[in-house]
Amino acid sequence: MKDLLEETAKSVQELYRTSIDPLARKFAFEKRPVDGEISGGPLVLFVGNHSSGKSTFINYLLGEAIQRTGMAPTDDCFTIIRHGRHPEVKDGRAIVSNPELPFGGAAHIGPEFLSHFRMRLLPNEFLRDVTIVDTPGMIDAAGPDTTRGYDFSAGVRWFAERADLVLVFFDPERPGTTAETMTELTDSLGRIDHKLLVVMNKMDQFRSLRDFARCYGTLCWNLGKVIAKKDMPQIFTTFIPVKGAAESALSLTDFAQAREELVQEIKRAPVRRLDNILTQAGIYGRRLKMYVRIIHETRKNLTRFRNRLYALLVLILAAFLGAGGYLMAEESWMAGAITAVVGVGLAVGGYFGARELVRKLEKTLMGNLDSIFEKVYKRDLVVGNREDDLILLWKEVKPAVTWTVDNLGLLGLLRLRGSELARLDECLDKQLPELRAKLHRKLESKPTLY
After folding, report:
1. What CATH number has the domain spanning 41-267?
2. What's the angle, vertex CA 240, arms to CA 234 and CA 242, rounded to 5?
3. Helix (H), strand (E) at residue 188
4. In whole angstroms, what is the distance from residue 223 CA to residue 237 CA?
């Protein structure tokens, strides 16, 4: 499996360098995952309400009490739990400054985040194949007036984009109703449904089947409000056995089976990793394609307007200069000179007036980006049943377009060439699918990898 991971990572890195990076650099698009992140091992992210059982489940997986547990929030750190020859704890700055680790990109979240970021190295056999990231429990109090002191959402988003499996934990007391949970499901986890598993934990605490049904329905209701998909993600209803706990009023056989199914999904993280390397490149490439197409169309509208204005100024100047030359030659040198000077004055004034009109049009165009998106993707929005996916993708890409134009200006960006877009299309439509098919053939020929 390790050799297959390395081979796939190298192939994807080469596609980035040849087909994606040149266009991303040219149009100042957001940074893609660095090579270390692409070649890094399988990563499983745990998020959820406080006291939902995340840390208890991690301890169950590892067979030892690694993370602190409790009914109240017990840990305010993002904790990477990784295999090491000897037990060791590293702080955030040491983690992001180590080029051998795939977490250097987290440095951009800020120094406040790094003070709530750590890594635990453990000689645990389970961690040879999977790296675990535990996150602070999500709470109701987080908001404009009560904050964590660092960008929690940015941390969740950064790890979620790079994780191969994201487990979102809920418990019977808070089935998806904390304000922070709802926000993160919408903003940070909205585009990773292909690797999202929902865990409704602590099933052994229900006193009746009616209570379970009510809680399960509430969770589904809340998830339906924030997950913009027609199909609900699979919900694993389970529990972790605790010594001395009161006997459950429900039969726990199915819940115990769900727990083992969840463990098997986590153990399959290396296989998911292979698929996610390709999926991540595809998502980045599609975002880049939408980004450059919208910028290209917007810039084209602006340059067409500017060129028409400048062409009109040139015609006016040429007319006045021609008239001035005629007057100087045929009638009066003075009249001809005055005519020519007036023409030059009108051209200069018109030039500055045209610049102001171009500036105003750029502002108008940037205010109508949604209309430009609908025009560029008119056919795709109508056919292919892709409307929801394209609209969600546009919601992600639009801020990047706005930020780039605000800082560089539309006319400060180079023109998109058809060959550049064709190269990106070939990567997305041919090369990545071929890599995926090749990968699946190798996995099918080695079923023990599963």
Report:
1. 3.40.50.300
2. 165
3. none
4. 15
